[in-house]
Every structure is written in structure tokens, then in C-alpha cells.
Amino acid sequence: MFSMNNKEEINLSAYNEVADNHGYIDNLETIPETDVREFVKVGIETDKALRAGTFIQKDSSILHCSRSMEGVEVKGIASALKEHEWLGEYVWRLIPHDKDDITRNMNKVPDQGFFIGIKKGVKAAKPLQTCLHIAKENFSQKVHNIIVAEEDSEIHIIAGCSTSEHLKSGLHIGLSEFYVKKGAVLKYTMIHDWGENVCVRPKTAVHVEEGGVYISNYISLKPVGSIVANPVTYLEKNATARINSVLVAGQGSFMDMGSIVELNAPGARAEIISRAIVAGGTIISRGHLMGKEPGVKGHLECKGLILKNGLLHAIPELSGHTPGVEMSHEAAVGKIDKREIEYLMARGLDEEEAISTIVRGFLNVEIEGLPAELAAKIDQAVKETEKDMM
């Protein structure tokens, strides 16, 4: 396995396991301004009219949990497991509890995190939002999240993760198991702002049944200590997955980011698209498409820019197990073309404006169904990040 100063490895015992209890807040609009400033950066709205539901966890406390439409359920995972006996069948089904040290440790701690359920045939007109926030210094936040999108349902979930301004170090371990039933559509947009010395170790597995659609968007623009993630998606007959990531690694940041998609039945389709910028840090960009049956199609695309000394290591993989699979990949690592800069300068932009325009265009991956106000915030975040990248 590729390694950079052993940054993939963490000492679980080096982090605090206990945090203060944060009181529950009934009204989103009364959340303290210090928290709101951090939540807004990752797409969280305090106007409940803009969302189908909200789940906010601060350290290990549920700060707020509510819904605004019928047919959509959002709860803390612990209370959901007590209320729904059937839900236990979905916990640890896609991620083995004895897979590694992290899962073995997580299997011993109390359940934290969220459960989101979408009833059969329900189409949520507005996104649902979740936020996992770390406030205590050197705290180890551990969550187990379950999503069940029942047949022919559709929802877009905006998942923000953040830390308090004062926080210097911490650990986030998120185990997520998503179930997309027959004909359902799950869009999952993650916007993360972790902090310069925070370690992040998510483990995600998604199962998409016949005709289902899973769209994943991952956006990380700010410095982070280290992220190591390699989610896996299992596609059945005529199921579709589109997985997009937009990554910026500033000075000292380490990102080992991948995605595995298993195309397990005829008609399965997958696309993995990554945009990565190294501005002094390290990005290992992985992608692996596995064609298991005839009649599947997949494409993997990884493009990167190096603006400051660092490392961008692209590792695209294709595995075909039978005749009749169609899969392709392309990867490119480079720099900003001087001719593009000169072209824009000839049309009235100065050099800094020209470079900024090119960088913004490079990071622009089409995110399907993104609310206008969130798209505007992401664009603003990219503009603010440019100052650190240049």
C-alpha cells in the first residue's frame, strides 16, 4: 500500500472519548451564532423551510433533529434502533464489524449518528441536511449512519462536516451504510471543512438495487490533517452510480481518497470523476471499477493540477471478470497552460484573475440537483480557497 509518513495510521487511544453534553435545541433559528458560522460553511441552513429535515450532532450530542415533510424520517440511530426492530438487520450488513481495528473499536461503543428513512414512492422536493460537528479539542467523534431509501423514492441529502474555529486536533470516524431500493434515487452531497490537524477515517458502503440511482458528490477545499477514505458501491441490474469528488490539498494536508464500484449485474452503469488540486499537500486519488457480469459499463476520470510543490498520485484501476464488460479510464496530472492565461489576459483580465478563472473552471464538476443557494456558497468557497492555493 502506498504510504506517506504513515499518515494513514492513527492511534485511537490518543484521542478523548468523552465530551460535554450539549443541550438539545428545538428551534434551528436559536442555534448559537458561533456554531451557525461553521454550519453555514458546509451548506447547513437554519431556515427549516429550505430543507425536508435536519440532523445536527455536536461531539456526541444530538443538537437538533426534525423533519418538515411526511414520508421522510430522520432520527438519532440509537433511538431509531429502539423504535424499529427491523432496522437492526441493516446495521453491519455492508461493513463487517471485524474488518479492521476501527470497525472492531466502533462495534464496542454506543450507537451515535443518524438514521434516515424515505418511504416507498416519496419524492422529497427539498433536500434533507445533516451536520456532524466537532467542538471539543482532541475529541474522537464516532458515528454509525444508516440510510434506507425505499422503492421508487427520491431524496437529496446534504451532509456537512465541520469543526469549531478554536479546535486544533480531533478524530472523526464515520461508518455509513446506505440502501437504495428498487427504482429509488439517492443523491448525497458532502461538504467538509475539518481543520488543519483533524484526522478523518470514514468507511462507507452502498447497495443499489435494480434500477436504482446513487449520486455522490464529495467536496473538500480547506486544509485537513489527513483523510483516508475508499467507499464501495454495489450495483445490481440496471443500477447507476455517479461519483464526483473535488479536492484541494493545501500545505500539510494528506488525502488518500478513492472509490470502488462493483458492477454486479447486466445493465449496471458507473462513472467516477475526480478533480484534484495540490497546493503544497498530498493527494492519492484512487478509483476502481469492477465489472462482474456482461453488459455493464463504466468510466473513470481523474484530472489533477499541481500549483505548489507536493504530490498528486493517481491510481485508476479497471477489473474485468467476464467477456462483455465495457470500462475505460483516463488520468492526467499537469499544470495551468500558459497559453490559457495569455488568452484570458488578452481579453482584459490580469494574470491573477486569469489563473483564478482557470482554477474555478477546473474545479467545476456538474453537481446534479444542487440547490441554487448551496451552489452559490460552494462557488464562494472556491474563490476564498484560491488565495491559499496561489
Automatic annotation (TrEMBL):
GO terms for biological process: iron-sulfur cluster assembly. InterPro entries: Fe-S_cluster_assembly_SufBD, SUF_FeS_clus_asmbl_SufBD_core, SUF_FeS_clus_asmbl_SufBD_sf. Residues 136-362 form the SUF system FeS cluster assembly SufBD core domain. Pfam families: SUFBD_core. Belongs to the iron-sulfur cluster assembly SufBD family. This is SUF system FeS cluster assembly SufBD core domain-containing protein. It comes from Desulfamplus magnetovallimortis.
